[in-house]
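User: Hi! Is it possible to get a structure for several chains at once, not just one? Here's what I have:
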Amino acid sequence: QKEVEQDPGPLSVPEGAIVSLNCTYSNSAFQYFMWYRQYSRKGPELLMYTYSSGNKEDGRFTAQVDKSSKYISLFIRDSQPSDSATYLCAVYNYGQNFVFGPGTRLSVLP
Amino acid sequence: GAVVSQHPSWVICKSGTSVKIECRSLDFQATTMFWYRQFPKQSLMLMATSNEGSKATYEQGVEKDKFLINHASLTLSTLTVTSAHPEDSSFYICSARAGINTEAFFGQGTRLTVV
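Assistant: Yes, the chains can be modeled jointly so their relative placement is included. Here is the combined structure:
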């Protein structure tokens, strides 16, 4: 079993839709969870950073972590064509390297 | 967020030559820097982790004599691809973090093409 699993997509949604992106992970010891957005030919940029369980909101983005089910989610409200990118989840534990999911390609259609 | 600058953003080199990629943290001190490689439509693959002032730790399967990493200061790490071959053509990305339990910030990436 891979440490982090993520549906690669592609996921296509109409503009204005609510997007739900998800990852599952296998190691319950992970404490830190991140979502990155990567546009084509660019390096990833950090979107959300969460420690332990719970929700975190930033503008149109909400990150959720459910440690009991080892499931992390990123919700995008009122999606825009500019949100079209690959979204990568990453997990890590104190002092250890990150483990990335393979990324989900999202297309928001105008 | 903090800024990590990676240079160059793209480079084309001849087979057999060496290429150096720089990764700088502009507004924070990066105790740890990471180097990744990404092939098209694939996720990031960690190549090595470097802590300032010490030797890099390479992931299994990554040739340390081919991918030389230097992290001489808290704001600069370099990756040198030695004797590059076409199969080394890839997108190389660095990231940096200030502390063990802090988030990481990524550079813009370097697209290397070896001809």
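Chain A has a mean pLDDT of 90. Chain A has no helices and eleven strands.

User: Great, thank you!
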